[in-house]
Amino acid sequence: MKLASAIGFALIISVSCSKKNGNASVIWISGFKTTCESGAGASNCLLINKSIELTNDEWELFYSDIEGFEFQEGYLKKVEILEQKPNDNVLAPMDKSIGKYVLVKELEKRQDHRPLLEAHWRLKGIHGTLLDKKIPPPTLDFNLDEMKIHGNGGCNRYNGTIKQLGIKSIAFSNMLNTLSICAEANVENQYLASLDKISSYEVNDSILNLYDGQKNVMVSFVSHGKTNNRTKIHDIWSAVRIEGSPINSMVPVPRLEINTTEMKIYGNNGCNDYFGTLTDLTENSISFGKIGSTRKMCPEMEVPKRYDAALLKTRTFRFDGRALIFSDEEGEEILTFMKTD
Predict the structure, then answer these.
(1) pTM
(2) How many CA atoms lie within 13 A of 202 on its CB side?
(3) Could you report the per-residue pLDDT of 194-219, keeping only the tens digit for each?
């Protein structure tokens, strides 16, 4: 007991003495880090809020380490820190401007929902109306490390900067998009215009709502996490079986390219080039929207016609070794692919 008391007394004296040589302050530390540029180049910095009760959403970069502080992704931490002044007797003249920060104590801990934004979001509704399942859904991806967003508006790719991201507030800027002309119906113009009006958000494990300044829901999304299967299916594939029957090696082999970032597909059915959209993609379900194609007539049309019909009946997928297998609503195999090297 005497030893413990002595140690405790020594720590109190140490902290008291340290405070005489520095400035103590209370801050909140964010549950995620972001890239920052310091004198030593790019690194990951903490984000801090100096509002004691988090009454504002003003977060700023903190370029220094905090000795004794343990960062925990997904959690806000309210801490008291001490900025220690340089010791003139120890530091060389060139180092006298360098101080350091030390954790005094952790005061409070709360969940930070912002890291939940880093998922693959697919549009569920716009202005309170559910999206027609026949229309390609716009997508939204967050990169908190670089404070950027990107996605597909239903026709064109877009990207932008996260100008503001607080506990409740959010705003985007520098929005740019490609300028392709798409024949199929989409809500791209309405969707991109909505992103310009966003001022706040609400996120849980699977739903993201973005609101305007009057708290009206502008757009809502459902999460499709970046699963192993979503990553694996993003590739170029060659068909080897249609409805369980091997494809004759003497005819052109259908090909399929799946782009999960743009939620689009491209390929050739053995005669014509085709292109379309992914209207559903989860860990094991997949379906396609309207598919367009060229209109050539080839000497052999049996395989292209069977392939096109099977593609439209696809509802689920699975992997069997290196093979990608599509099945219909009854779970029957309709298309089998192998990865194109």
Answers:
(1) 0.65
(2) 9
(3) 999 999 999 987 899 999 999 999 99
